[in-house]
Design brief:
This protein is mainly alpha-helical. 61% of the residues lie in helices and 6% in strands. The chain has a domain of 161 residues. The chain has 14 helices and three strands.
Length: 271
């Protein structure tokens, strides 16, 4: 902590940032208590923010700090209220962050019923579970609140459009009609493919555009949250893949038996 404060006051934090990658190893070696870990994570998050390093890196330690309040009583959790709000705003602002577990963290969940910060929690929920129309409705009713936190409406729209597009790609059919993208993202016909390309560039989805049939064929898309539903979906997919591999192995074995039973030169080629 002294080294961090010294680096921060001396404006030489770049020299100490590389050590943050080893912080988990340090914690095992030091065997310090939860309160000390909490203080350390928050200080590191502040150092990274002050140094204007990667927003994701600062956000990572901020969420580590908030996670240390799990299992504490409501009075102690309330100490993290301001940092919980900060984490929400940082996530919403970040143009390159589309997934987080903030909704599962008790220190953030407390905001839902807080008279002062309930709207901040509602905004987070929109960015993690809803589409563009919900955001536009929220912004129209709370534009002053948005500005007070330094949130730029145009940037939020861009992020929500990408998120909404990815959400459309998570349906079971794996296909998204151009018309649905146009309506959901509230864009013109000639902008549909542009936004699909933006989503691909951001590595939010892998897909192909079928211009003839006016559909986007999705092979993979990112999840905004990864909870029980996502785990069950993953288990189902893995079970399907396992069944397909088992079926393929059985087919190969069956063909091999047939091939070995035929006279020389009459084997079946397996392709």
């Amino acid at each position: 902590m002294q080294a961090l404060n010294l680096a921060l006051n001396g404006k030489v934090v770049d020299h100490i940032i590389p050590s943050f990658k080893k912080i988990d190893c340090f914690l095992k070696e030091w065997n310090i208590g939860v309160k000390d870990q909490r203080n350390l994570f928050l200080t590191i998050a502040n150092v990274l923010k002050e140094s204007k390093s990667s927003g994701k890196y600062s956000f990572k330690f901020l969420t580590k700090y908030l996670a240390t309040f799990a299992g504490e009583d409501s009075y102690i959790i309330s100490e993290a209220k301001e940092e919980a709000v900060r984490s929400v705003i940082e996530f919403v602002k970040a143009p390159d962050m589309f997934q987080c577990d903030l909704l599962d963290i008790p220190a953030v969940a407390q905001l839902e019923k807080d008279s002062k910060y309930a709207l901040v929690y509602q905004l987070l929920k929109i960015f993690l579970t809803q589409k563009l129309d919900a955001y536009l409705e929220f912004q129209a009713a709370n534009s002053t609140l948005m500005k007070s936190y330094g949130l730029v409406h145009e940037d939020c729209i861009t992020k929500m459009r990408l998120i909404s597009l990815v959400d459309l790609g998570s349906n079971e059919s794996g296909q998204i009609p151009y018309a649905l993208i146009k309506d959901t993202l509230r864009i013109n016909d000639d902008e549909v493919e542009l936004w699909v390309v933006k989503a691909i560039t951001a590595k939010l989805m892998d897909c192909k555009m079928d211009q003839m049939n006016q559909v986007v064929i999705v092979s993979r898309c990112s999840e905004r949250i990864f909870g029980l539903h996502q785990w069950l979906s993953l288990r189902s997919k893995l079970a399907t893949w396992r069944g397909n591999v088992a079926s393929l192995i059985s087919t190969i074995k069956a063909n091999k038996v047939v091939e070995e039973g035929l006279p020389a030169g009459q084997g079946t080629t397996i392709r």
